[in-house]
Amino acid sequence: MTPTTLVEPTAPAPSPIPPSEHRFAEIIHRLEAGGSMLPDTPENLKQIIGIYKAYAVPMDFYWRDLLYIAEQVFLEPLPAFKYFLPQEYLDRPNTYAGDGSSLRVWRGAATAHPELLEFMEKGETGAMPKLWHHLWHDRINMEFAEACMQAMFWHQDMGGRFNEYLDSDAYRSNADRAIKAYFRNNPLLLGLYGVFPEMFLEKVKQLSYYANLGLFWEVMAPVFFEMSDLYDEGALTSVQQAMEFLVNGIFAVAGQPIYHQVQIAGEWFEIVPKAEGMTWLHEAALPYVEAVFYRGFPFRGTKSYNAQVHQIPDKQADFHYGILYADIFPVGSAGIPPTLLMQDMLHFLPSYLEADYAVHRRGDHDKLIQLGVTFQRSMYNVTSAVLQALRAVLHHPLDDPDPDHLLANRRFFEEQMDRFLRPEARLDAIQDPDYR
Amino acid sequence: MTTPLLLIIPGISLAMALLLPLLPQQRPGLLRFAAAGAPLLQLLLGLLCWRYPPSDLHQAWLPKLGLTLDLGLDGLSMPLVLLAALLTTLAIFVTPIDQNRPRLFFCLLLATNLGVVGAFLARNALLFVLAFELVLIPTTLLVAIWGGRRRAGAAIRLVLYGAVSGLCLLAAVLALGWFNSNGVDFGYESLAQAQLSAGQSRWILALLLLACGLKLPIAPLHGWQPFSYAESPIPVVMLLSGVVSKLGAYGILRFGVGFLGDTWVAWSPWIAAAGALSAIYGALNAIGQADIRRLMAYSSLGHMGLLVLGLAAATPLSLQGSVAQMLAHGLIVALLFACVGLIERKTGTSTIAELSGLLNPLRGLPLTMALLLLALMAAAGIPGLAAFPAELLVFVGSWSAFPQATLVALVASGFTAVYAVRLFNRVGFGRLDNQRADWPLTSWAERAPVLLLAVLVVASGLWPRALTGWSETTTASLALRTMPPAPWSISSSLSSASPDAAPTFEVLAS
Which residue, among A366, A370, A424, A430, would best test binding to B if mutated, counting the most B CBs under 10 Å from its CB? Predict the structure, then answer.
């Protein structure tokens, strides 16, 4: 994949429509010119590409383990070892990387990333039994990945057909077969299933979201790896190019299947069959962006809210706790998923970002927070790519000569920017290079 | 041990204060270490005196006035001299390295130390007054020159209240000496034997209470305190609250309890009531403060109230508790202000509403906040920390004499936890402001004095004899009341005692 095509280049010509009067007019004009919500500066480019690389390595673990849990661990009553990824899943070829890929995004190998394997071997502390690495959190922390999955599972009405399918009779029947097969030698749990079928069904639905998110990140990991390689080679030179690469990626894999299958006693059971036509863009990417980037939920340990005085919105759609609104400062608090994510990325920071952090704020001491702010910037860029992709699908080209079409684009961007009028939104903050 | 040692202890501060102006101003590190060397040496010599007690020094000075250079160390003065030396050393190290006009600043800190240590060492009441008065000059200059935005007002209040306090003390001491039937003699031994009429004793005690009440202070004589604590540089507040205020308590104990026992016992219910009300007034005001420094000032006022309650009861246990409270409060309040100083230096404010999230492990001041939490817990009297044994002794020792006042003081002690939790919840938790949270980490040089204080607060909580052991004998000899037998000893002797014989205390003074 090359960073060209679908997004139109910045048009230097004056716009035939009047300037926006929106509070974020400057950002809207930038989006109308094909740009990103993130200002196009070399510093921003360096930061976001560096963090994409640092994110992609743990993500390579996340997607493999999510699929492992969805496909193999399944309804294990005591899934104590669900984060102990077997070699089979480390070797599982990524669909979008490696020589055998029919839709190759990254030029690297399809198996687990070498840096990931190296880290899993020793961690920060050195070589010791896996269990000690696990208990010491000297590992890739799946807690954040599971929190993202839970956000997708919990939030409703985010578009796509996935959620509706989970309520269908077909899904119920598929899940029922799988549950009965899984517990066929376990009369206690089989009996329990007879008494509380909905409880087990709910658990399987959650596992379907494990699969959904795993398949989503199976795409994103090689996309980020490729962007990092292109940047290192000097082929990505602007934030806009980085965003265009993402948009191209989105369109390239938009139709890839989202499914859930589980292997029980060597036999594969299809719970969300590929034949249902669930697609990566509509059933995974867009719900993911909505659930994780926008809505999210307040992570325990970050901030306290009092629902009784309506500090929590009544409607899930009004939630605003995603990464685009997140207060990065609680990062560092022990054990909370955002800290664990930053800790995961910390292990794989490229040297140029390490050097950058060392000379800002508290240097090495508050690297986790600087990293978190960079991550927030990068996710604004990913969101920009999604907005541009949606605009391309739902509305008109940026260089459309018809002013009515341009106004329709304007309305679309303004509606999107309205979501950042909340005081918690960090859109203003990321415009400031000193926000670190 | 030869007696000149007692002269050397305060003399070191004087010598260094005279030497400092000769050192180059451009070398702040050298100035700091030179200045700190004096109280540090004082501390070591003090410990030496504890191990090998020296005999008292008697040196004529102005015999016609009854002023002699009588110096000595006993169970009351020894721990307070050590506390003064320690807190002066730490105050010097807490001073920012870029302190403006450091030579004069350190000279004045050492002059304060000279006055305080001189007062504790004095065995002549007139010498005590001189040292007591000496303290006022450098502290006023320190507030006036290096204080905050409203330093002029703070310095004026400090000097006015201090002057009234000094004059009252002078009048009380002169009266003590002049009405002394042994002739004009201000030596402690002589004053202890003084035969005063009831009327004379009352006037002298009233003046003494006014003088020392202003210095401590207790409500309603505290007008200077919140203002001065809010405007003074942190090293100065550490000394003002940690040791200078103890001059008042020491004066009451030495002169009021020591020399005017009968009148003290007669007035003690009122003094106990004043102490208890001061405790509750201080604690309630602390809850309502919007600035950490002012909160600490009112907290200090409350703790001084507890101390006065213990002095009023004048049982061996309550007096021992009061001395322990002087030491514990000295350490805790110095730790509190040292933490506040770090917060203020990094964030630029001590206004509670402007601070939040400082406990953040990466961008906040986690260690400083952890130590502040420790100090607040200590101030609230949590077991295992310095204030607990001291307050427990005060409460147990005062209960038999003044149960109502003790109960009020116990409630006040409970309120301490309220403002401690309120303060920490607002400042430590919540969201850290991105605009404000751009300050460097505290350095180890900044942390070291605070850590040392924290270690002492914990250690003396775990080993309370470090607070109570010094004064056990002296306070027992000063006690004006005996304690009733403990419940367990009552129950064990019930068989031989009259069933309706209620435990009571006995007034020793006569």
Answer: A366
Question: A362 to chain B, minimum CA–CA distance in Å?
Answer: 6
Residue B144 lies in a domain: no
Quick check: ipTM above 0.85? no
Kindly list the distances between the CA atom of residue B466 and the CA atoms of A377, B117, B323, B451, in Å, as whole numbers in the listed order: 56, 20, 11, 18
Minimum distance, in Å, between the CA of residue B433 and any CA atom of chain A: 9
Q: Are B352 and B292 in contact (CB under 8 A)?
A: yes
Kindly determine whether residue B360 and residue A429, on different chains, have CB atoms separated by under 8 Å: no
Which residues in chain A are contacts of B437 at CB distance < 8 A? 329
Task: Give B444-482 pLDDT, tens digit per residue.
Answer: 999 999 999 999 999 999 999 999 999 999 999 999 887
- Chain A positions touching B431 (Cβ under 8 A) are 303, 327, 329
**pLDDT at site A12:** 53
**Domains held by chain B: number:** 1
> What pLDDT score was predicted for residue B486?
59
What are the angstrom distances between the C-alpha of A208 and each of A269, A283, B233? Answer: 12, 12, 63
Closest CB to A329 among B363, B440, B441: B363
Element containing residue A352 per DSSP (H, E)? helix A351-358
Query: Shortest Cα distance from A360 to chain B (angstroms)?
Result: 10
Contacts of A332 in chain B (CB under 8 A): 360-363
Best residue in B363, B441, B442 for a mutation probing chain A (most A CBs within 10 Å): B363
Q: Is residue B409 part of a domain?
A: yes
Note the Cα A151 to chain centre separation in Å.
Answer: 11
State the DSSP code for B253: I
pLDDT at B490 over 50: no
Decide if B157 contacts B227 (C-beta within 8 A): yes
C-alpha span between A272 and A257 (Å, rounded): 10
Question: For chain A, which residues score pLDDT lower than 70?
Answer: 1-13, 300-303
Task: Please indicate, yes or no, if residue B479 is contained in any of the structural domains.
Answer: yes
pLDDT of residue A301: 61
Confidence band, pLDDT 50/70/90 cuts, at residue B510: very low
Rounded distance between C-alpha atoms, residue A353 and residue A349, angstroms: 6
Chain A nearest CA to B341, separation (Å)? 20
Helices A197-233, A142-154: inter-axial angle, 10-degree rounding: 120
Residues of B whose CB is below 8 A from A346 = none
Give the minimum alpha-carbon distance from A329 to chain B in angstroms, rounded to a whole number. Answer: 7
pLDDT at position A308 is 84
Residues of A in contact with B360 (CB under 8 A): 329-330, 332-333
Domain housing B322: 269-483
| Span A32-43, pLDDT tens digits | 999 999 999 999
B453 within a domain of the structure (yes/no): yes
Averaged confidence pLDDT in chain B: 91
Q: What is the DSSP string of A282-337?
A: IIIIHHHIIIIIII--PPTTT----GGGT-S-SSGGG---STTT---TTBTBTT-H
